[in-house]
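User: I'm curious whether this sequence folds into something compact or stays loose and floppy. Could you predict its structure so I can see for myself?
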Amino acid sequence: MQSLKENGYILIETFADCSWFEQLRHESESLERTQFEHKNIQESVSQDANQRRFELINPPLLTEIYRSRSIEDLIRLPLAESLKPNHRCGYYVYFEGSYIEPHFDHLLSDCMLLICLNRKYGQGRGGVLKLYLPKVYDFEGPRRRASTTPHWRIQDIDLKAGSGILLAGGHILHECTPVEKRGMRLVCGMGYLFQRHMQKSRNPESCN
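Assistant: Here's the prediction. I'll summarize afterward.
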């Protein structure tokens, strides 16, 4: 059984096999030409971090999949921690120079499931998810709002199309480094809370 308390994150490489993967990519690429316009939030005041990217929150198909399937079904792994959706999901597009500075996730998210739908590599190395991992994971206590320190382990993760990560981003400091010249990364994200005092939901639908 996989546990977030072991590393703070779980990598999954099998999303391209899910029947809904290409449907999500089609929806995101279709909406990108219309509803993603003027969504650049470079100078906005964010609860998370200064960032430069395009986003679309709670699009129709992604929301349907997110609400109809449990986290265990989406990641297709037995998970030690019980999670419940926080009703926040979206598409996030990073073009050349796009980034997110070091941050903890939204105050209402303990975990985020990020799935890479498309990745185009350009010149150089960028668009990397950088995690600042503490020695001890304490998901029960208050979230730590600390800067990086030398004794933390730093982990670089380059999500490729069809892969994803379940990250305890509400408790682990992380960032997205600027995307390289002529590069692009498209991901979808789904937020979850640790279900500490509620029973788990009924059996989910199948992934396929």
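Summary: DSSP finds four helices and eleven strands in the chain. Confidence is low (pLDDT under 50) at residues 42-47, 146-150, 197-208.
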